[in-house]
Amino acid sequence: MLAGLCGGLGAVFGSRCQVLRTEPLPPRAFHAGRQQYSSTEILAGLAARVIPDSSRLVAVTSSDLFVPVLTFVFGEAQLEGRCAVVSTCRLRQEFYGLPADAKLESARLLKETVHELGHTFHLAHCENYECVMAPSHAVEWIDLKSSTFCEACRPRVPS
Questions:
Q1: pLDDT digit string (tens) for 24-53?
Q2: Which of 19, 43, 50, 67 is deepest in the core (most CB within 10 A)?
Q3: Which residues participate in catalysis according to the annotation?
């Protein structure tokens, strides 16, 4: 799945993508009461790494993520930073009691990863529901949007 994501990101951003070695999530990010991981804590760990200036670092996890004010998040990014985290947990059809659909999960993962990377390029949420920068408060909203930026957002993303 990560190789496919890398290819999709390369096509959207016109740049090279590399899959790094798997690392465990930081134990301090786990909230026992919620049985979820704090995406903000994961981002803090990513931000402590040395990243080349033009590069972005995205962690992809199968664990469920949250921020304190929301029940869950599909991902989170440093607005104007260089790190993001995306979860496949709620992108999977099985989470909703439906049969697995690897193609749909991959499409959702690409959209959410592009969305979070858009935040690292200073983009806020877009009102165009087809734009990848449209907010996604439910998985159905992800399915409505494309994996690309609209005409208003695209010029603000480095190529």
A1: 999 999 999 999 999 999 999 998 886 777
A2: 43
A3: 116
